[in-house]
Specification:
The complex is a heterodimer of chains A (448) and B (471). Chain A is α+β, with helices and mostly antiparallel strands. Chain A has two domains: 205 residues, PmbA/TldD fold, CATH 3.30.2290; 235 residues, no CATH class. In chain A, 21% of the residues lie in helices and 40% in strands. Chain A is built from ten helices and 18 strands. A six-stranded antiparallel beta sheet of chain A has the order 3-2-1-4-5-6. A five-stranded mixed barrel of chain A has the order 8-13-14-16-18. In chain A, strand 5 and strand 6 form a beta hairpin. Chain A is globular. The longest helix of chain B is centred in the middle third of the chain and has 18 residues. In chain B, 60% of the residues are buried. Chain B contains ten helices and 22 strands. In chain B, helix 1 packs parallel to helix 2 and helix 3 packs parallel to helix 5. In chain B, strands 1, 2, 3, 4, 5, 6 and 7 form a seven-stranded mixed beta sheet that branches. In chain B, strands 8, 15, 16, 17, 18, 19 and 22 form a seven-stranded mixed beta sheet that branches. The chains are: A alpha+beta (448), B alpha+beta (471). Strand 2 of chain A pairs parallel with strand 3 of chain B, so a sheet runs across the interface.
């Protein structure tokens, strides 16, 4: 960690000496093992290592972000970035970076995860778990992630952080069109329940056997945390200030208004022990618990320093990565770890209390006709179980939720007391901690 | 410059370390530049250079893939050690089979008439600001107006243990536009992508100012005058944008052999198509869908795939019949076939997997206006906004961004957010006429874990579908 901190300080010093006024040097060393498996066997084992420095430089209102991928001559690279910044066009949307005397609550990465060399036995445990429930086909991924970070800024930030986590995703099939999906996400090796994750996927696949064509109409939907994680993906991005500013958010101009049912309290909290715990945001501001929706009322957007000044408020410590990726707007605030505060229901009580509904394991491909209004559809996948008069009566298939996302959040009337950490592929991101929820009277459609 | 000696040395280490079925090394060097303009003002500027490499080792027990940024002797030794130990740790009971492919020694490059690296930030800023100004000149209220431009050159050196040595240079550029048009208290959104392989001359061919004016006026018309379609059965003419998304989603994806064989089962999913369905009918005789990486200047262009297999057009659905899957060496080997050059990866950091390139419906012999002119009562859907499809690629939905009622062969006013929710055989089976003129759109296709965003074209001519249900 000291090496990363030294690089961050060297970059900062060199950039300042070259004439930079605002500098962020965010140094990251990431090592990831991944095992991909399908057809009940391991297909490929991947290993990636990336050591690099994401750097932001401002000279007056001329700004530039870069990713320094070669850190052997860091000072020279930093000076070159400053020269590029001086030649950049003026950025009227830039309002500075955070400054202050920052103190960080540093977490320690689990050494057992850091030192884990061959995770393949957990994959085999998961496969056997699913098979024990009757699965004829099992696939998934297991990630073992380790990351060291250091940051130095002209705003006074100087910090280090580390993280390690495991996320296991298991999808089991009992028939060609009957599947179940389960996750286990943990920041402690002792929390990894691979066999149980496999069993849960297998159990859901068994319950999904012999599905019949689903019907169109209005149904109450009981959503597993995995499904809700996919919906939180687009919902939470629409809470960020840049999305609000450019109009691609159903939350625009709704601070103080009801945007969800009174059951819903939604927070972004990277300070809790989770797979996405982090000490500071990408400007070096200590992370904090932000209540975005309280009892159904929208309280704030997620901000970095620049967007906060534009919105005449303070940063929420949600500054995002400074180098954009495709489909990611550059330099925008981001959610880090979304939490839907649990309620007091048991899942069995939700089912017993539902007259005409669907219990849904997972979904994907959530797309919007209009982000400004929230009109969307999403396609449930894996186990979709019909509920009639308080009982599960059998699986269905080929249905789509075609509704409005604000209406969905306003229709949530039951939230479970139990919650799970969720991270799955690109669908259920960012990492979340979510309970089971029920949304009343959702519109279900299907192919003609 | 790429240090080819290092790549050769890493390959030698991999081969001597484990006697693999196959060992590959890819070294890449890239320069990337990005610019975002929001509401006519610069919002962010980004640039970076990257050099890195990967090693892929295929043993009978499994596949090991290791990658790192930076190239040093220490890093290279660690890569080889990791890749071999990973391949061994897979411990497969059924061995990996790869298709046999000839060794290739070649160089290929997409040339730039106007080098991307030579275009100044000032010029690019003016370029995006002129697009923004075009939207404002309409006098229509347009919010958002967020434009993100990215361009890059990737130089690559690929070597494998079978004797292939391939050098390539591939420049690409891409623009993503977001905007929201408001009128009478209502809004419609437009999210659009432009992209090509080539130099800055491609950006100048996009005709963005005309696009922006037409798009803004069209969306206002949809808000002001658009009427909902009364649910029922109609004839439908799909414009090239809609034909293209259908070609990509309900032909290209279900014809990816790794999906068919289950390798993507826990992410992007499987496919309703099985290996035994080659030769079965999926659509009418007018349904021919091609995936062709060799379309010159296309966003999905490449000459050789990332396993060193020569690219060629693949006829996926041919005259309505399931004809040929998209293969890499792993899937082709499993089915006893040869690869058809469909192996791609986003960067050297990630494993190459089966991907589409430029997927489009083959042209027919009708004029565009003949298709509309032949409809008594129906809808012309030129473009889409919301869309999705299930993970077996059977149930899809397209909601119109631009659509019009058609009565007695004439356009009869805007239809707003017309919904086509249909099965894959339902879509391809309903086509009874196809026009001559093929149009293309750039897109980023998502697949893989970790997600790999892949440059593609989607496209097609106009299609006439008879008697489909619209809502």
């Amino acid at each position: 960690m000291n090496e990363l901190k030294g690089i961050a300080q060297e970059l900062l010093k060199a950039a300042q000496a070259a004439g930079a006024e605002d500098v962020i040097a965010d140094v990251v060393d990431t090592t990831v093992n991944q095992i991909r498996f399908s057809n009940r066997r391991i297909d490929v084992s991947n290993w990636w290592n990336e050591k690099h420095a994401v750097m932001f430089v401002a000279v007056g209102d001329r700004t530039i972000s870069t990713d320094l991928r070669n850190l052997e001559r860091a000072s020279e690279a930093a000076r070159a970035v400053v020269e590029l910044a001086k030649r950049s066009p003026r950025n009227k949307n830039y309002f500075g970076i955070a400054s202050g005397r920052f103190k960080y609550v540093r977490s320690r990465a689990d050494k057992q995860i850091v030192n884990l060399r061959d995770p393949s036995r957990f994959v085999h445990d998961a496969i056997r778990g699913a098979e024990s429930e009757g699965a004829i086909d099992v696939g998934g991924t297991m990630f073992v992630r380790r990351e060291g970070r250091a940051i130095a800024t002209t705003g006074g930030a100087l910090g280090v952080d580390e993280a390690a986590s495991i996320d296991l995703s298991v999808r089991a099939f009992s028939q060609a069109e009957a599947s179940g999906h389960s996750l286990c996400c943990t920041s402690r090796l002792s929390g990894l329940k691979a066999k149980e994750a496999g069993q849960r996927a297998g159990e859901l696949a068994r319950k999904a056997r012999d599905p019949v064509q689903g019907e169109e109409g209005k149904f109450d939907i009981i959503m597993e945390p995995l499904l809700l994680g996919s919906l939180v993906n687009s919902t939470s991005m629409m809470m960020t200030a840049l999305r609000v500013e450019i109009g691609t958010s159903m939350f625009a101009n709704k601070i103080g208004e009801r945007v969800a049912s009174k059951e819903v309290t939604f927070v972004d909290d990277p300070t809790v022990d989770s797979i996405s715990r982090r000490a500071y945001d990408h400007e070096g501001v200590p992370t904090r618990r932000n209540v975005v929706i309280k009892d159904g009322v929208l309280k704030t957007y997620l901000h970095n320093t620049s967007t906060a000044k534009k919105f005449k408020t303070k940063t929420t410590a949600n500054a995002g990565p400074l180098v954009p990726t495709l489909f990611t707007l550059a330099n925008q605030p981001v959610p880090f770890h979304c939490v839907l505060v649990p309620g007091d229901w048991k899942v069995e009580e939700m089912i017993a209390d539902t007259k005409n509904g669907l219990y849904v394991n997972n979904t994907w491909y959530t797309r919007y006709q209009n982000y400004g209004t929230g009109d969307f559809s999403t396609i449930p996948r894996d186990a979709i179980l019909r509920i009639e008069n308080g009982e599960i009566t059998g699986p269905v298939k080929n249905v789509r939720v075609s509704d409005n996302m604000l209406n969905l959040w306003k229709s949530i009337d039951a939230i479970s007391r139990d919650a799970q950490e969720v991270l799955w592929w690109e669908e259920a991101t960012p990492p979340t901690t979510l309970p089971f929820t029920r949304a009343r009277n959702m519109n279900i459609t299907r192919s003609a | 410059m790429i240090d080819e000696d290092i790549a050769e040395s890493v390959l030698d280490s991999a081969v001597s370390g484990c006697s693999p079925l196959l060992a590959e090394v890819r070294m890449e060097r890239s320069n990337t530049r990005g610019l975002a303009v929001k509401g006519g003002q610069v919002n962010s500027v980004m640039t970076f250079s990257d050099t890195g490499m990967n090693v892929r080792v295929v043993l009978p027990s499994g596949i090991g893939f290791a990658s790192t940024n930076g190239v040093s002797k220490t890093a290279c030794a660690e890569l080889v050690r990791r890749a071999i130990s990973m391949a061994k740790s897979c411990r497969r009971r059924t061995p990996v089979w790869l298709s046999k492919e000839p060794p290739i020694r070649t160089n290929w490059e997409v040339r730039q008439r106007k080098n991307l690296a030579d275009v100044s930030l000032e010029e690019k800023t003016k370029f995006l600001q002129s697009v923004d100004a075009a939207a404002l000149r309409t006098g229509i209220k347009v919010r958002g107006r967020y434009f993100e431009l990215k361009d890059y050159e990737t130089e690559s050196y690929f070597v494998n243990s079978e004797g292939s040595r391939i050098r390539s240079v591939l420049p690409r550029l891409r623009l993503e536009t977001y905007m929201i048009v408001s009128s009478k208290g209502e809004t419609e959104q437009s999210l659009k992508e432009f992209g090509n392989a080539g130099g800055w001359e491609k950006a100048e061919e996009w005709d963005l100012e005309d696009f922006m004016v037409d798009e803004v006026k069209m969306l206002k018309k949809m808000i002001d005058k658009g009427k909902k379609v009364k649910p029922g059965r109609y004839d439908l003419v799909c414009g090239s944008e809609v034909a293209g998304i259908a070609a990509h989603e309900s032909c290209g994806h279900p014809m990816e052999a790794d999906r068919i064989l289950g390798r993507e089962m826990s992410q992007a999913g499987k496919s309703f198509i099985t290996p035994a369905m080659i030769g079965q009918r999926i659509g009418s005789v007018y349904a021919t869908v091609i995936d062709d990486p060799t379309v010159p200047g296309s966003y999905g262009y490449y000459a050789y795939d990332q396993e060193g297999v020569r690219a060629r057009p693949r006829y996926l659905y041919k005259e309505g019949v399931i004809n040929e899957f998209l293969h890499n060496r792993e899937t082709a080997g499993q089915l006893g076939l040869g690869s058809n050059g469909s192996s791609r990866s986003e960067t050297y950091m990630k494993e190459p997997i089966v991907r589409m390139a430029n997927t489009f419906v083959a042209p027919g012999d009708f004029e565009d206006d003949e298709l509309v002119g032949s409809i008594r009562e129906g809808v012309l859907m030129n473009s889409f906004t919301e869309w999705n499809i299930d993970d077996k690629r059977y149930n899809q939905k397209y909601v119109s961004r631009e659509a019009y009622f058609v009565k007695e062969g004439e356009i009869a006013g805007p239809a707003r957010r017309c919904v086509l929710e249909i099965t894959t055989p339902g879509f391809w089976g309903a086509i009874d006429a196809v026009s001559k003129k093929v149009g293309f759109d750039a897109a980023e296709c998502g697949k893989g874990d970790p997600m790999q965003s892949m440059a593609v074209f989607t496209g097609g001519p106009m299609l006439r579908l008879r008697g489909v249900t619209l809502k």
